[in-house]
Amino acid sequence: MKLNKYPALDVWSLLAFVLPLGLYLGCLAPTITFYDSGEFVTAVHFLGSAHSPGYPLFLLFAKPFTWLPMGNIAFRVNLATAASAALSCLAAYHLVVALLRETCFCDEALFSAFAKKLAALCGAFVFAVSPRLWLQSNHDKPYPLLAFISAVMLLMLMRWREAYQEGEEQPAWWYATAFLAGLATGAHQTVVLLLPGCLLFVLATAPQAIRRVREWIVTVGMLLLGGAVQLYLPLRAAAGTRQNWGDPDGVSRLLWHLLRRGYPEDPHARDFSLLLKQLAAFSLSHEFGWGGLLFVLVGLWACWQIQRVFFTYLLVCLAAFWLVIVGYFNPQVESIFLTEEFYTPLYLLAAVLVAIGLFAVATKGAGAAQKPERHGLVHRIVLAAFFFLIPVVQLVNNLPVQNQRHNYLAQDYAHNTLRPLPEDALLFTWGDSGAFPLWYLQGVERFREDLDLAHIPHLVFPWYQHELPRLASAFRGESGVLSAELVFAHLVDKLHYERPILMDFSTRYSLAWSKQQPVQQGIVYWLAGAASGQQDEGAAWKMYVLHRLTSKGWQPDADSHKAMIIHAYCLLQSAEDLARRGHVKEAGRLLLLTGNIMPEWQENVKLMRRRYSIPTAAGGTDEK
């Protein structure tokens, strides 16, 4: 088969990209979400550096999307992720096409070609509706881009293999693969876990290639050239950009950043139950259902028959991921969820296996059935129904969870935190999910630029202290040897007479308060002694955006649910405080809001109404 038989683009390829993209656009989050979203978008906007390892390629990829005249900056970055996810589905399509190129579905050439393209489109859509990719597609994430590049790397190696088997030496495919591998480190360094599989792919095809020293030297050079994307980090740090995580303008700080030394984890014992949980982070049954898992196994068997080097590549890649993520990193139970996204490139390959497995079963069925003189429309419809049963089931099951188009919760949480604060206030934050939306709102949308937002876990880092120039005089020279809590205490002690000092909910309940107790105002807390400017609770809540906090039309993740709980808990506390002071009407209004946000708390609301004789909207007190 000649290489010029590869089509540059066809209708099937277009569908493999457009259908997932259309799905993702319909489910796209309209603004920031929780977790790392606000921090990523802020880093893209300022062309700064995100948390370790920096993600320079993702930032550069997303930046042009921020120039589009639609939505806010966060929506545009979300759009960039949706586009990269759709590209990864397109790559899955072409992998299936390449693997099935030498197979035959039936004697009728046109119908056989149709079956192959249908199977490839099925593979693209199976990957598109998998929970992991779909979740990553609707807000800013670098892993779909990594999955796309890793699939293109494999396609290049398959092109090289086909040329080699036809007697043509084309090492340029090696070089391009190595360049992309180096470039992909700017999306995430887990791409290196695919390199053992790539190396074995080459050596299994041409064992004598091990002696080609010149080609290997050039390949390593291209790997380093692609990896030069990491130079973005020190260059932007030297330019003094905002959102300069780690300030990697020197070799030592760059290595600190790339090697994630800001996230140390204490050694812990290994045990079998922990091992099983770590291995279960790669869950094919969750991504594709039990039927999909069955066809993954069938696809493995089929690949052993038609493309054994690909079969070996799959096993080596999975072993590399498990050896490093499970064996070397050995994450604790509470950290395992952080590793789940690392497997996105492997899920793409698994989706390819589902399509190969379906094709193999359909081929066996067609061979055993009575062969028609000509395959007509009915045969095409039946085959399409067989191929698309699994992705359609996954689509229906996952749509309620993945549809985020009405999710404004993170942005509203940030607005509710910042809007009522007094002028020139200093707000301390603790958890990333609580801090990052505030960074976005202040840095990108330029809301409440008079405030200083200090993230307590980062206060020990000199690079982060430089991000707070108005607090420079308050940082002591020895603060680098203090814990984050002690630096926080020092800042409060030095500044609480000069300006209003407040903290978010997470800070209030993450630290011990033996002396001065924070005083609640809405969903933030004043430090006692600095609360002279505190507003009345009822007045504070009138400034809040509360009507979009319910999860109607979308499924909240863990941090979104926490944000709803924070609002509801603080409403409940404010209502009780007002009721104790005799403001039962205002307390009733807050209780009504509490019930709207957390309907499952209605019993608690009723108990408080009875305790303080608070009337309902209809005038009663829920007395029975």
Record the strand order, biggest sheet.
2-1-3-5-4
Number of distinct beta strands: 5
The rounded distance between the terminal residues' Cα atoms is 82 Å
Structural class: mainly alpha
Radius of gyration: 28 Å
The helix content is 55-70%
> pLDDT average, as an integer?
88
Number of helices in the DSSP assignment = 27
Low-pLDDT windows of residues = 618-624
The figure for the number of domains is: 2
CA-based shape:
globular
- Give the amount of beta strand, in percent: under 5%
Brief account:
It is built from 27 helices and 5 strands.
Description:
Strands 2-1-3-5-4 form a five-stranded mixed beta sheet, sandwiched between helices. It is mainly alpha-helical and about 625 residues long. Helix 20 links the parallel strand 1 (about 425-430) and strand 2. The chain has two domains: about 10-165 and about 270-400, no CATH class; about 410-610, no CATH class. Helices cover about 60% and strands about 5% of the residues. The chain is globular, with a radius of gyration of 28 Å.
Task: Note the main attributes of this structure.
624 residues, 2 domains, five-stranded mixed sheet, mainly alpha, disordered C terminus
How do the helices and strands line up, and which of them pair or pack?
Layout: H1 11-27, H2 37-46, H3 56-62, H4 73-99, H5 109-128, H6 131-137, H7 143-165, H8 172-184, H9 195-205, H10 213-227, H11 232-238, H12 251-258, H13 272-279, H14 284-306, H15 308-329, H16 336-339, H17 344-368, H18 377-402, H19 409-418, E1 426-429, H20 432-443, E2 452-455, H21 462-465, H22 484-495, E3 501-504, H23 505-508, E4 519-521, E5 524-526, H24 537-541, H25 558-580, H26 584-597, H27 602-612
Parallel strand pairs: 1-2, 1-3
Antiparallel strand pairs: 3-5, 4-5
Helix pairs in contact: 1-4, 1-5, 2-20, 4-5, 4-6, 4-7, 4-17, 5-17, 5-18, 7-8, 7-9, 7-17, 8-10, 9-15, 14-15, 14-17, 19-20, 25-26, 26-27
